[in-house]
């Protein structure tokens, strides 16, 4: 069989493909948060200011977010095997540059190359999983994806926190590099061509508008927490992002072969589940961002304690995602999502009464219950939405889902950190912990309101099982 032909899915050995996809996506997502606790060490070693060093995490998220909307086009243009090998090789090459970077400029180049490869991984994995599994088994398959999404970002700060205390910060990249290279070598032998190529026309203007639109919004919202909403840089980024993104969306409706198909939002179930997924992701990222700031800067906990606080919840989410996938296959998403959103709302409310004396077991237990709830929302909601789309639109659906999550995380984090600082009773040098924690509690009140809106939306999910969805699609 030629390398560019689509394989017969029924005859494919799925296990090796699943293994290389999960490993690749895990490494890609891990790198979003891997530098979180290593930043102070990099600042000291390369003589950087905090604002400059923060770009190492910001640029990864930015380039990652810019690449995701283009993946639907890439999936329809290149073979599965070639696209995966290129994305993973690009990621590995970026990792090598980061490991040997003599200074900040080269380190930034490495992070950009890493992110360019990583941005392709998640939508590609979701698309392949949805195509190689029948609709009634997709929940179990996507539950494994949920394990990666929940576990990798939470594990990043814990791994880096331990490593940089024992070894130089470059060790982070030297550990990831051989794993990425091994993944590329194994993928060369086991990866098959799953996706069908339609060779859409390259619309350069759409790619430019998409890059400026999503890039501008992601940068504007993620920078608002650092520079404030009145910053000229933030305002300019948001205006440019909004205008170019609007132009990009309008252009897609006029193209016969759009880069990203926005017509999928005409499907009500897909739209509702995407919104719920965005709210759940804000809940996940907001807690992982705000709680370490509260713990280290206001309640006197160490960086390692704040990292370890996240770990039990991450383990629970990783353990529960495949189980929730099986439950989804049998009963559908509706009741899973309702229970999950209820837990997310309750735990957000429990974080509105934090004080300088709040105990570590309390913070850890509430966070663990929160992650248990999020595991019931993320992949079941995503899979229920994507199940509504025909196979030809799945690359667009998975790219859109991942793009919306990235935008939600950026907007949610920027907004909640701004609320946290703006509503603190005092933020000056003489501010007491209680005065600063007031802002944290208000931010979680806002998070509670968002979760409640998600809970109400969950009742609009169609209460069918995947098998019934399939029967419905076949009868149409």
Automatic annotation (TrEMBL):
Alphabetized Pfam families for the sequence: MFS_1
Keyword RNA-binding in annotation: no
InterPro entries xrefs: EmrB-like, MFS, MFS_dom, MFS_trans_sf
Membrane topology field: Multi-pass membrane protein
Protein keywords: Cell membrane, Membrane, Transmembrane, Transmembrane helix, Transport
Any single GO CC term annotated in Swiss-Prot or TrEMBL for this entry: plasma membrane
Transmembrane spans: 12-35, 55-75, 82-106, 112-133, 145-165, 171-190, 202-221, 227-250, 270-295, 301-323, 335-354, 360-386, 407-425, 437-461
Domain Major facilitator superfamily (MFS) profile: from-to ranges: 17-466
Domain of life per record: Bacteria
Entry's localization field: Cell membrane
Recorded GO MF terms: transmembrane transporter activity
NCBIfam families hit by this protein: efflux_EmrB (TIGR00711)
Protein name: MFS transporter
């Amino acid at each position: 069989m030629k390398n560019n032909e689509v394989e017969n899915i029924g005859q494919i050995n799925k296990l090796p493909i699943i293994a290389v996809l999960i490993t690749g996506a895990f490494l890609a997502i891990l790198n979003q948060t891997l530098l979180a606790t290593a930043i102070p060490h990099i600042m000291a070693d390369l003589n950087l200011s905090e604002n400059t060093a923060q770009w190492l995490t910001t640029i990864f998220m930015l380039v990652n977010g810019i690449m995701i909307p283009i993946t639907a086009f890439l999936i329809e243009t290149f073979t599965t095997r070639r696209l995966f090998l290129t994305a993973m090789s690009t990621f590995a090459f970026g990792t090598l540059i980061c490991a040997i970077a003599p200074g900040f400029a080269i380190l930034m180049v490495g992070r950009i190359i890493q992110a360019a490869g990583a941005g392709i991984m998640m939508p590609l994995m979701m698309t392949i999983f949805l195509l190689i599994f029948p609709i009634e088994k997709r929940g179990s398959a996507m539950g494994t994806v949920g394990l990666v999404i929940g576990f990798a970002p939470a594990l990043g700060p814990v791994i880096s926190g331990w490593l940089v205390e024992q070894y130089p910060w470059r060790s982070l990249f030297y550990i990831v590099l051989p794993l990425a290279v091994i993944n590329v070598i194994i993928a060369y032998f086991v990866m098959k061509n799953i996706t069908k190529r339609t060779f859409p026309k390259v619309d350069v203007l759409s790619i430019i508008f998409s890059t400026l639109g999503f890039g501008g919004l992601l940068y504007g919202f993620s920078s608002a927490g650092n520079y404030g909403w009145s910053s000229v840089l933030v305002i300019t980024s948001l205006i440019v992002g909004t205008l170019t993104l609007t132009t990009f969306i309008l252009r897609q409706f006029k193209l016969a072969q759009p880069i990203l198909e926005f017509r999928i939002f005409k499907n009500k179930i897909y739209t509702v589940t995407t919104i719920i997924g965005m709210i759940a992701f804000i809940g996940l990222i907001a807690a992982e961002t705000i709680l370490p700031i509260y713990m280290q800067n206001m309640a006197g906990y160490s960086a390692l304690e704040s990292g370890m606080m996240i770990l039990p919840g991450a383990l629970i989410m990783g353990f529960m995602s495949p189980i929730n996938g099986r439950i989804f296959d049998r009963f559908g998403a509706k009741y899973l999502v309702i229970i999950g959103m209820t837990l997310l709302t309750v735990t957000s409310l429990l974080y509105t009464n934090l004080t300088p004396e709040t105990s570590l077991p309390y913070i850890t237990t509430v966070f663990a219950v929160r992650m248990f709830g999020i595991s019931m929302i993320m992949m079941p909601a995503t899979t229920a939405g994507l199940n509504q789309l025909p196979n030809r639109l799945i690359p667009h659906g998975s790219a859109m889902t991942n793009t919306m999550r990235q935008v939600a995380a950026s907007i949610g984090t920027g907004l909640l950190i701004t609320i946290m600082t703006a509503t603190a009773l005092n933020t000056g040098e003489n501010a007491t912990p209680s005065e600063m924690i007031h802002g944290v509690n208000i931010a979680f009140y806002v998070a509670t309101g968002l979760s409640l809106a998600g809970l109400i939306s969950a009742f609009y999910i169609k209460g069918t099982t995947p098998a019934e969805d399939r029967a419905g699609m076949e009868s149409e």
